[in-house]
Amino acid sequence: MDFNPPPYQGTNRILGGKSVTMQDVAEAAGVSISTVSRVLDERLPPSRSKAAERVRKVAQELGYRRDIMASSLRRGGTGTIGVLVPRLSDMVMALVYEAVFRAAERHGYFAIVATSGDDPAQEQSAAESLLDRRVDGLILATSRLDDQLPAQLRQRQIPHSLILRTDGVSRSALGNDEQGGYLATRHLIDLGHRDIGLLAGPNFTSSARDRQRGYRRAMNEAGIPVREEWVCESGYGIEAGESVGYSLLTRENRPSAVFAINDDLAIGVMAAAHRVGLQLGQELSLVGYNDIPLVARLPIPLTSVHVPFDHVAALAVELLLAPTEPSDPIRRVMPTLIPRASSTPPASS
Q1: Terminus-to-terminus CA distance in the chain, angstroms?
Q2: Which residue range is the domain that position 29 belongs to?
Q3: Are 117 and 236 spatial neighbours (Cβ–Cβ below 8 Å)?
Q4: pLDDT band at 25 (very low <50, low <70, confident <90, very high)
Q5: CATH number for 148
Q6: Gene3D superfamilies this protein is in (predicted)?
Q7: For the segment 278-304, what is each residue's pLDDT rounded down to a tens digit?
Q8: Dist. CA 277–CA 287, nearest whole Å
Q9: What is the number of other CB atoms lying within 10 angstroms of the CB of residue 280?
Q10: Is there a domain that residue 349 lies in?
């Protein structure tokens, strides 16, 4: 016996004194209500039949909108996903939230966001606030290596996934950060640089740790000793990049190239280079990470490692919604290096 999912009702703008319903769409399209239900159910693979195309066209013309609350109640949830990020002033986090929003929407969910800084106590409080609003699950871009929240969520059997960072246990979607760090450093080595510094970011995130691992792997593979005084821990922001970059570039022996583990840090290094009178792309080569839209439009465009945020976000949502434990709960997306004018061979070569 074929299973026909029960029709779900919908509302929209007022048409002829009443809200447009699924019955209205069915009558206008000349099909059954169950057909309209199947065609407009985002949880099902989209049909490309002529009837399905007609149903979607009629629904759009009539302005039909499904009732999210009614649909969510039938599947035992609220149709919302909570997204927790450190801050939305960070362009990467803003881009990631927008990518998660789009991915969630494709599954019929609405994503709401909360911020927590990089403070574990604020993270816990923000997560509980989202859960108090009865979200169906959480996507965390805040996980630290010493973070207890993912373990608590696992213990409480609360659906969740981690994005851009991982604790190595919870379902996670992120870029292959070690390979990305390797690509950035290998690029500078292939240009002829041997004096390569690293703005390493904070040591409490898997992303910073793994990008540093990639840097060290590339240096060791090329037989270039790592000068530990040129490996500088920092925050993630532009101010940290300028402060630490200025300290690094004003040393008596400075590197000829710098890999900054995110684009904000690299922009800060650009500011520091300007302060000390170094010409970027001539006297100093620089590589960032994430390839945010701004960096290709700078006066000297920044070489950066591109991370496909939409792909990562789609994986994070799929992992969150998966009904059973996936065989590979930690998914890593391969990054790519985008060379630009900020990285050139060393002046002496």
Answers
A1: 75
A2: 14-72
A3: no
A4: confident
A5: 3.40.50.2300
A6: 3.40.50.2300, lambda repressor-like DNA-binding domains (1.10.260.40)
A7: 999 999 999 999 999 999 999 999 999
A8: 19
A9: 21
A10: no
